[in-house]
Amino acid sequence: MTSADPQEFFALFSAERRPDPYPHYRRWRERLPVAAIGERMFAVSGLAEATQVLRDPAFGHPEPEYLDPADRLPDQPVDESGRVVRAFLSLNPPDHTRLRRLVSKAFTPRMVEQLAPRIEEITAALIDGAPDRFDLMTALAKPLPVEVIAELLGVPLDDRERFAEWSHAMARALDPPFLQHPETVAPAVRARQSFVAYFRELAARRRREPGEDLLSALVAVSDAGDVLSEGELLVTLTLLLIAGHETTTNLIGNGALALLRGPDGLKPLGTDGENAARVVEEVLRYDSPAQLTARTALHDTALGELAVPSGSQVIVLLGAANRDPATGPAPDTFDPAREPGRHLAFGQGIHFCLGAPLARLEARIAFRELARRRPDLSLAGTPEWNPTTTLRGLSTLPVTSGA
Predict the structure, then answer these.
(1) Rg of the chain in Å (alpha carbons)
(2) Which stretches of the chain drop beneath a pLDDT of 70?
(3) Torsion angles phi and psi, residue 297, rounded to 5
(4) DSSP of 17-42, one letter per residue?
(5) Prediction pTM value
(6) How far is residue 84's CA from residue 389's CA, in Å, rounded to a whole number?
(7) I need a labelling partner for 92 at 20 to 30 A (CA). Which of 65, 173, 296, 314 fits?
C-alpha cells in the first residue's frame, strides 16, 4: 500500500496523541514509509526515505512569491523586484548558498564556544535560584536559551521578555497549513511585525555604533563585497530567534522529562554531568524538538516506487524517522548510555542546522548543571505539552528536589 486517506494522516497529529505520538508514528512507518496523501502531497517516515528527501537536490523549496504592494503586510521584507525575502533555510541554491555563507562568516564555531562560560553562569544562577518545587520550563528551559540568544544578538536586558513572547508566538505559526489554527495566525503576524520593527531600529544603531555581538557582525559581514540586505538581515534574525530559542527550550525540557521518567532520574548524566553530551544526542533522537519539515519537488522525480510530480509537497516525519530500527536497537527505548548514532533532528544536507553547535552546547551545560546542583530531581506532577506539532515541547514540567 503506497497511498493513504488524508484524514488518517492528519490524525497522527491530533491533540489526544500529542503526549506520545510515537506508537502511532511506528505503526504508520511500518506500513507506509513513503505514502501519497491525496493529491500532490507525500509523507515519508522511514529513515532512508527521509534522508533521501533531505539530501536530494530534486527536493527543495518553492521560489519566493512576488507581492503587489497592496497585498504586503506592514514591515514585510521584499527585495527590489517585489519578491518576498525569505531566510536561507527556505531557499534553494544559489540564493541559499550565498546567504548561508554570509551568515556562517559571522556565526562561527569560535563565537559559539566563547559563549560557554557565560552559558554556565546563566544556567547556574537559574538553577540555584529555583525553589525546591518548581516548573523546570519556567525556571530553566525557557529563560536560558532566550538569555543566550539575546546576549548573542546584543539585545538590551530590559527587552528580553518581549523577545521571548515574540519567539513563542511566531513558533506557533510554523506548523504546516493543514495543522494551523486560525487563532495562532494573527498573533504570529503581529509578533513578526513587532520583531522586524524592533530589529530594524537596533540594526541601524549597530551600524552607527558596532559592538562585539552577533548583530554587529551580521551588519558588517561581507563576502567579496557581497553583504546582507536589510530584508535579508531581518529574516535571518527571525530565523536565529526561533531556531536559537524555541528548539533549545524544547530540547532541554524533552530531555529532562525523558530522564526523570526513567528509573534512575538524573543519574545517567553522571555525578559531575560527564555524560551530558551523550544524553543530548539520545534526546535528539528519541524526542526531537523538531518533528516535521517539508520540501517541494523541484521537478518530476520519484520516492521509492512512487512518482512525485513537480510541485508536490513532501512532509518529512523527523520524529518517526528518528525511531526507525535503522537508527539502532530498541529505538523506542530511551537509553542514555546508547552510543550516539544516526538521527535527523538537525536535518541533513545543505540545510543542516547552522545552530546545532549552540543548541548542543546549551543543552549539555543545562543537563550537566542539573546533575551537579539538583541530583535528586524528580517529577512532581503531570507535564503539559505545547499545542504545536512542528516544534515539539512542553509548556510545563513540574519537578521537585531536596525532599
Answers:
(1) 21
(2) 1, 67-76, 403
(3) -70, 120
(4) GTT--HHHHHHHHHH-SEEEESSSEE
(5) 0.93
(6) 25
(7) 173
How many C-beta neighbours within 10 Å does residue 246 have?
Answer: 27
Strands 313-317 and 41-44 come out as parallel
Cis bond before residue 387 (omega within 30° of 0): no
- Could you give the 3-state DSSP secondary structure of residue 307? strand
Is residue 380 packed enough to be buried (19+ CB in 10 Å), middle (13-18) or exposed (0-12)?
middle
Looking at the chain, how many residues does it have? 403
C-alpha cell of 220?
Answer: 558588517
Buried b (16+ CB within 10 A) or exposed e, 53-81: bbebebbbbeebeeeeeeeeeeebbbeee
The overall longest dimension of the chain from CA atoms, in Å, is: 63
Enumerate residues 6+ apart whose C-beta is below 8 A from 309. 40, 297, 300
Residue type (1 letter), 21: P
Q: Are strands 301-303 and 306-308 parallel, antiparallel or unpaired?
A: antiparallel
**DSSP string over 279-294:** HHHHHHHHS-SB-EEE
Give helix 182-208 / helix 160-171 axis angle, nearest 10°.
Answer: 140
Cα gap 6→167, rounded to integer Å:
31
Q: 10 Å Cβ neighbour count for 344?
A: 25
Cβ-based neighbours of 184, under 8 Å, separated by 6 or more: 169, 172, 173
Q: Which long-range contacts (CB under 8 A, 24 or more apart) does 95-99 make?
A: 96/350, 96/351, 97/350, 98/223, 98/226, 99/228, 99/232, 99/236
The pLDDT assigned to 403 comes to 59
The Cα–Cα gap between 223 and 101 comes to 8
How far is Cα 154 from Cα 214, in angstroms, rounded to an integer? Answer: 7
Task: Look up the CATH number of domain 3-400.
Answer: 1.10.630.10
Cell numbers 544526542 label which residue? 281
Cell digits of residue 69: 504592494
d(CA 240, CA 43): 27
> Residue 356: which H helix or E strand, with range?
helix 356-373
